[in-house]
Amino acid sequence: MEKDLRELAGIINGKIIGDDHVLITGINSLDKASRGEISFFFDNRYRDYIKETKASALIVSGPVDTYKGSQLVVSNPKLAYARLAGIFAPPVSRFDGISKSAVIEETSVIGMNASIYPMVYVGKEAVIGDNVTLYPGTFIGDKVRVGDRTVIYANVSIMRDCIVGKDVIIHAGCVIGSDGFGYVRDGSENVKIPQLGIVQLDDNVEIGANTTIDRAAHGKTWIQRGVKTDNLVQIAHNVIVGEDTILVAQAGISGSVHIGREVVIGGQAGIKDHIEIGDKAMIGSGAGVHKSISKGEMVLGDPSMPYRLWLKTRSLIARLPQINERLRNLEKKLMASEKDVI
Predict the structure, then answer these.
(1) What is the pLDDT of residue 306?
(2) Given 21, 218, 237, 274, the catalytic residue
(3) To pair with 304 at 20 to 30 A between CA atoms, which of 24, 52, 199, 250?
(4) What is the C-alpha radius of gyration for the chain, rounded to an integer number of angstroms?
């Protein structure tokens, strides 16, 4: 693929400094870019690479004097990079048609131009949309619905009745619609609570590899439009995750949590059941959230606390030995003064 710099400038609304006829064949990092590739600079830690880079053009937030090639000046270089990387990324590979070794139940409905690899199973009354890609080892349960242009990578299981929207990406090893974790004690016995609901993934959701999303006890576990999860995320039954929220690796969401829109949940964060996380809240990595969080609030720590309070407590931890020593000295002085008085 070859793109004129002017065409790329139009896509990312950039201003060209230098030769606007440069032809670009790919995108790469500053230290690995070669002639014909465009690179990007949005982190001062990599400023030294600018003098050495072989990139034919650079995406920047402002003119860079140390770089002599063409520059594309944009307001948000990281966003511009993401958009251009999408243009130069290789297309998703597709099997031509439906493999003879795939098992497709007769009562299922397969849309136009579907790509179904070997060793796929599609259950009874399932509906697969147009231009869907199902990679090897995928299990589509009975009455599952998969929307147009969705890509489901290898060894994904989507259990009965679940709904997957359009333009969804589900990475390898995910399980969508496994039973929620629900039991009642009868003496020493654990009696299983049947999980009668479903999981619904709305349009433009992306689910990271080996993520598990449990079906609801009743109703649905609902992952709303534009949500992105990293790998190894656990979402329990009846959770609602609001639009455009991000969940980073190993985050664990307990049952019946309601997460607002545009929330960011850091890696290895754990959230207690039956609480609410307000819109645009931010939960730091490793946080343990035991109570509801207000809209726009930022919390860290376990148990979680407001960001500024967490910073104060963290700074105190390093000083605890010194504070302890001072306290002991004060105790000794106090005891000595009491003896003098006696």
Answers:
(1) 80
(2) 237
(3) 199
(4) 27
